[in-house]
Amino acid sequence: MEEKDFGRIIKERLENHEIQPSKQVWDKINQQLDVPMVAPKAFPWKLAIWIGSAIVLVAALTTVWLMQSSTKEETKHSETVVPHTQGISSTDNTVNTGLKESSRQTADIPQKE
What we know:
Layout: H1 2-15, H2 23-34, H3 45-77, E1 87-89, E2 94-96
Antiparallel strand pairs: 1-2
């Protein structure tokens, strides 16, 4: 019961109590009120999107350029490949071995009847 009475007594005494700040405190408050408040600047999203797009474009173009230049280098330094054709000549039933005419070897292919 004593705790409730103590709390009630403190509440009654402080309920109407007022403190008057000194003149120096009021002067500092007035100085703070006179300063215009500056709103924080918003993040420049449009600028960030443009810069990001430019970076992606430059990266893509660089990748394409590097791929094309490496392909040209490989083609430049690779040996010339001559197609090697082997097959059966349908006109005379011989096998083409891909050799020059002077050293061409042919074989007769048995025909199914």
